[in-house]
Amino acid sequence: MDSFFYINPVESKEKLSGTRLRLYEIIFEADTPAGKAFDLALIFCILASVLVVMLESMADVKQQFGPWIKTIEWFFTIIFTLEYLARVYVVLNRRNYIFSFFGIIDLLSILPTYLAIFFTGAHSLMIIRILRILRIFRILKLTRFVGEGQNLALALRASRHKITVFLVTILTSVFITGALMYLIEGPESGFTSIPRGIYWAIVTMTTVGYGDIAPQTTLGQTLASVIMIMGYGIIAVPTGIVSAEMVNMKRVEGISTQVCPHCLKEGHDHDAVFCKYCAGKL
Fold it and tell me: What is the CA radius of gyration of the chain?
């Protein structure tokens, strides 16, 4: 690994000291009043900035309040820029943060405003800021939901092979049904090609039913009826697979919202001293 970015996993959090440690606790920790207040203020700014982007998409509002909207957009962009730079400054392993999910989202939330200087319409991408609302689970210290989220993620991972087999079976059924409807109904009923028939099969099997294509012959309607009935079972099967895995899974309890200063992972036990992902000291 590049020595410039490498941080020894057993490095102590005490390496952060003074102002840097204080900023880390405020920005990354939701257990302190200051940290929670900072994150709640950040959530408010995110929601307000997304609202501004939505209002700008309305022609009459933009025409009347265009200059004000631009000013507010830049105000929030500067706030998010300073926040991003502060996050990069306080973490021990900057590379881990910059290339993490939230690190990328944080960067993408500020780039559109700067890109809009050179590319027209790029500011509309600021709607990606809404993804930062995912932080609310840590911010509000909803440990119960954090634990449930981990249970769901583990259940999905454990059932991925069964779900994959199920999806392959559904795709095969859709292709066969689409081809049959093309042969049975033909172009005169709107089934102008096999892909068009497959589209109809997907819409029908998922119980969406747009109604833009419908079988006209008795045989075609009979096949459609079978597909409609199958659709209800299709919805229930993945739910049953995941539910069964969740029942067999050990419940994840006692989860805290503490962030490891080395790898920036969450989900540690309340009494944990070392990170269970990188062995760094918490």
Answer: 26
The whole-angstrom separation of Cα 157 and Cα 258 is 24
Per-residue pLDDT tens digits for 100-129: 888 888 888 888 888 878 877 666 677 777
Nearest to 172 by CA among 164, 182, 184: 164
Determine whether domain 158-247 maps to CATH 1.10.287.70.
Answer: yes
CA atoms within 13 A on the CB side of 140: 10
CA distance 277 to 9: 10
What single DSSP character describes residue 281?
A: B
Task: For residue 142, give Cα distances in angstroms to 25, 129, 135, 139, 278.
Answer: 18, 21, 11, 8, 24
- Start-end ranges of CATH 1.20.120.350 in the chain? 13-141
Residue spans in the chain of domains classed CATH 1.10.287.70: 158-247
Is residue 88 within 8 A of residue 69, CB to CB? The reply is no
- Token digits of residue 120: 């027209």
Record: fold of 13-141: Four Helix Bundle (Hemerythrin (Met), subunit A) (1.20.120)
pTM above 0.70, yes or no: no
